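Example record

One chain of 310 residues, shown exactly as stored in the release files.
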Amino acid sequence: MDKVFGEMEDALRGAVESLDVNEAEPTPIEVELMRNAKLIVGALDSVLPSGDAPHKIIYEAMRYSAEGGGKRIRPFLTLEFCRALGGDTSAALPYACAVECIHTYSLIHDDLPAMDNDDMRRGKPSSHRAFGEANALLAGDALLTYAFALIAENPFADARQNCRAASVLAASAGHDGMIGGQVCDLQYAGQKITAEQLFETERKKTGELIAAASTLGVIAADRGGEIPDEIYRAARIYAHSVGLAFQIIDDLLDGDEGETDEMSVLSIMGADEARVLAEELTAEAVAAAHRIPNSENLIALAEYLCGRRA
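Predicted structure tokens for this chain:
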């Protein structure tokens, strides 16, 4: 692992310094998302295992899903919170990769027949269709455990930062976080649920990992341990508000009013009411972001996610 991170240091610093984007994007925040997505893809390619080994199929399965596309919103938040607070982006990159490994593992497991039983993910066969159920399960497990290796051996942060980052990510992904939310999702399947049940489930299932991604960005910038608690609180408020607004807009884009067979905001309120709620949550996120210096991109991201129509 020391060798991996020795090679990773030059690769990540070079990616930060030489990144160039020529694509013409409609809005500045979409340009930033593209830039950061490319940076994350390059970093993941540097750190994910590869090579010829008897068990190399697990390397292939890990890479297949981790490099499978997406806007990379969560690692973007890790990088952007670090930047906003004047931190070294290189210190945030291993944390951002760890967050993306956790997110990817959750998607692999969500797609399994025992869970959502989805055959496609981001336009290509889901992991269990490409590699079989057993290898998909193991690929998710491997990404989960590798995430904590990335944090523990982050060469650009000190031991205090890495320890705190590992604790934050473990809590967000565990029994009272993302996994707890998934359990609630399974328990409520097919039931008539309340707004409180829905939003608490989404806070755990989606919001906690987004909050961890944001918090890890603050930790990456907090080299001397001097960033005040109010900044950490503002980051979590921002993240939970953005996360719930994001899920509400996803429900609006994916569903029909009156749904009762899945966890959806449209099972408890109409589309117009849901969009107003998303706008209110976005306003809360923007207010929290104003408590953080250099937060223009964070504000733009919140507004961009709420404004999606397709």
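Notes: The radius of gyration is 19 Å.
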